[in-house]
Write a structure and sequence with these properties.
Layout (H helix, E strand, L loop, with lengths): L1 H29 L1 H10 L7 H17 L4 H24 L2
Amino acid sequence: MPDMEKIKKVRKHIDRIDTALIAILAERMSLMPEIGEYKKANKIPVTDEKREIAIMDRLKKIAKEYGLEEGFVEEVFLSIFNEAKRIQNDIITKH
């Protein structure tokens, strides 16, 4: 039974981390309307490939420092970038 208690404790810790990750994602996404409005006002395209590449390179370097697979981090952040662009596109196409 002690092993079951340990796994429950670890799972509770994972649950707290998952909640924190969602809160941080929500905070990040809450900044997208401001970015979208700026891009709309200045007629800047939503997608900035040079910036995305630079960010991804930086994130992969950080991932490596933390012992994470670069491909995993890239996959996660591509999803984040896509959601950010979706939000910005919604702002830009809204009249």
